[in-house]
Amino acid sequence: MKIRNKILLFFSTVAAVPLVFFIFLMLAQRRSTGHIENSLFALTNSAAKITEHFLLNAQKSVIAQSYLPSNLFPAGDNASRQAYLRRIHRKYKIFSSVMFTDMSGNVIALYGEKPTEEFRNIFRARRVADAPHVVKTEGGSSIALVSKTNKNNYLAALIRPEALLNILEKIKPVEGASFHILDNAGRTLFFDISAEEKNSPPLVSVKYSDIDIYKRVLNRGGEKIFEVIIPIAGFPGWRICLAAPHKVVFKSLRDAKFLGIFFSLVSFMLAGYLSFYFSSKLSAPLEELSKSAAEFAQGNFSYRPQIRTGDEMEHLALQLNKMADKISEAQDGRDEKIRASSRDLANAYKEIAVKNDRLAMADKYKSQFLATMSHELRTPMNAIIGFTDLLKDGIYGGLTEKQKDILSKVQRNSNHLLNLINDILDLSKIESGRIDLMPEKFELKELLNTVSGEIASPGKDVEFRYSCPEGIVLYQDMMRLKQVIFNLLSNAFKFTKKGHVTLSCQTANEIVIIEVEDTGIGIKEDDIGKI
After folding, report:
1. Any bridge partners for residue 476, and if so which?
2. Can you give the residue ranges of every domain in the chain?
3. Contact indicator for 233, 47 with CB cutoff of 8 Å
4. DSSP state for residue 223 in the 8-state scheme
5. Is 12 helix (H, G, I), strand (E, B) or coil?
């Protein structure tokens, strides 16, 4: 691919970055929409809890005042009733009016705003005192709370709409937002909405923090409204609704989208212009440098690139020219240096050959020495073993049991020493990484008994502990294994001045584990790998 095309491709790729950025912006906007909705869900949920708490406290207040003093209603005395209602009205500022009614809802005594005739309809319910009721008043709508008194009548109170509204106004998310109380059908019960559509869109159910939340978007008075509706937990059939202008709630997302589109277009246009400009500016000197590199690769170091750009390109061309000059100078003495290097290499090979011959001769002498030494040592050892057998057989007279036991130990250790002498012959095999093993079947406990008997008795301050179960049969090189265990035990007794030395074995998943444990100084971590 031509350099110019590569530059165009590079800047085209750069130009695609704004497009990718725009795509990610759209995805982020969708996610941000979810975050905004979740924030409104949380806010509406808080409003529902505030409303529930407000109504429950108001209801508790009415119930608390419904237990009347015994002297409150003397015959024909309306003044005492009015005074009692006045005290309630002054004590609880959230009530617009309080009243006594008979069992049919007829007002006996009233202090405050007078309810409409619709107020009597709530007393037709079987359980009028169990829940709040929305009623019409002279000033609009109100919530009525009713409690049966101990005088066989009712104490009723009407809540000021602004008392609850002032609390909810403090948590409004944006300007123009409002809270409303709806019934299950979505009709407004409290805090009327003006110009509400008759054919509202259906509610969309959303799950938020294990709460059934509903949302919808509708047009009210020519304005797009986003609503979030949550049931009020303590009051079945009532819901709190947060209505907010859609353009205000999602304004930040629209602004971010507009800015993203604007900057993407500007970046795309700028990248296109830069790709055309720099491709024209950079392609010519780069092509000249590419041509000079091709000439140098073919061995033509007389070629010199001619670039006059006054920047790094020209500096690079000058450096290439200097490099070509030095390579040309170096080629003049190259052959002589190669010949000198060849002579030095040949001399080095000769020295290595002489040293290899000397090493081979030394290895030969070592092998001869080991063979001679092992032969000379085997002769007296065989004599010792033979005379020990004669003594044990009683050729030179009878022996006590103690003497026989000592001779048996001498014989076992002599055989062990003879095996060590034989092992010297295996030194060359060990050095070459190979050693011949002679596996055979034997019982492990018998081998450990033999090793334990050959070990010198420990001192009086050292206790020897030994345990091995019966029936463990191995197929291994018995002499090699015996040598390893013997060496480990000897080392343990040598460096244990006080305490105990333990030799034990056990099986686990067809693996035989032989352990030598002592209370001595132990083996250094650096030497464990040498065992």
Report:
1. 440
2. 299-324, 333-436, 438-528
3. no
4. E
5. helix
Is the distance from CB of 32 to CB of 39 less than 8 angstroms?
no
Q: What single-letter amino acid sits at 60?
A: K
DSSP per residue, 261-318: HHHHHHHHHHHHHHHHHHHHHHHHHHHHHHHHHHHHHTT-TT-------SSHHHHHHH
Distances (CA, A) of 190 to 18, 307, 328: 50, 84, 98
pLDDT at res. 514 = 92
What count of other Cβ atoms lies within 10 Å of the Cβ of residue 225?
22
- By the 10 Å C-beta count (0-12 exposed, 13-18 middle, 19+ buried), 516 is classed as middle
Q: What is the pLDDT along the chain (531 residues), one digit of tens a residue?
A: 455 555 556 556 655 666 555 565 555 555 667 777 788 888 888 888 998 999 899 999 999 998 888 777 644 567 888 889 999 999 999 998 999 988 888 888 899 888 888 788 887 766 676 678 888 777 677 888 999 888 888 899 999 888 888 888 888 888 888 888 877 666 677 765 443 444 444 444 444 455 677 777 877 777 888 888 888 888 888 888 888 888 877 776 666 666 667 666 777 677 767 666 666 666 667 777 777 777 777 777 677 777 777 777 777 777 777 777 777 777 767 767 787 888 888 888 888 988 888 887 887 777 777 767 766 776 787 788 888 888 888 888 888 888 888 888 887 888 778 777 776 766 655 655 566 778 999 998 888 888 887 776 667 888 888 899 998 899 998 888 888 888 888 888 888 888 999 999 998 888 999 999 998 887 787 777 766
Strand 462-467 to 499-508 pairing: parallel
Give 78-128 as a DSSP string.
-HHHHHHHHHHHHH-TTEEEEEEE-TT--EEEEEESPB-GGGGGGGGSTTT
| Continuous H helices in 393-507 | 401-424, 427-431, 444-454, 478-494
Tell the residue number behind the tokens 């001595």, with chain if given: 520
Question: Which run of H or of E encompasses 21?
Answer: helix 3-65
**287, 289, 293, 295 alpha-carbon torsion, rounded to 10°:** 80
Q: Would you state the structure tokens that stand for residue 497, as one six-digit string?
A: 């001045």
- Find out if CATH 1.10.287 is the number for domain 333-436: yes
CATH fold of the domain at 438-528: Heat Shock Protein 90 (3.30.565)
Dihedral, CA of residue 252, residue 257, residue 262 and residue 264, to nearest 10: 130
CA 24 to mean position of chain CA atoms: 25
Query: What is the 3-state secondary structure of 59-76?
Result: HHHHHHHCCCCCCCCCCC
Structure tokens at 358: 């000397």
